[in-house]
Amino acid sequence: MSNRSFGWLLVLSVIGLFFFAEEIFSVFGMALGSVIELSVTLLISLFFVGLVFFVVVTVFGSVLLGAGAAFIALILSGIGFFWPLILCVLVLYFIFRKPKVSRTG
Q1: Fewer CB atoms inside 10 Å of the end CB: C or N, the chain?
Q2: Could you tell me how many helices (H) and strands (E) the chain has, helices first?
């Protein structure tokens, strides 16, 4: 690539950045915010699962019971974390399923 075409490319990039900087930065900010939000939520839910395991093992003295309680806490935190997705999937299932037709009539 010649110096002249590189110069035009640089000028067009600066002009594009001048007009679309807000959109570019908002996309990067949205992506970074989503990653941070998911990470913090995952860490908090894993903290509560570990806390449930610790409390159950401490109170009842059984590691198997503690693992079961931690597994139930993990399932419930997963449902709490993904309930909008689960709700959307259920709505789509009920909209697009084929109803069973009874031929006894």
Answers
A1: C
A2: 2, 0
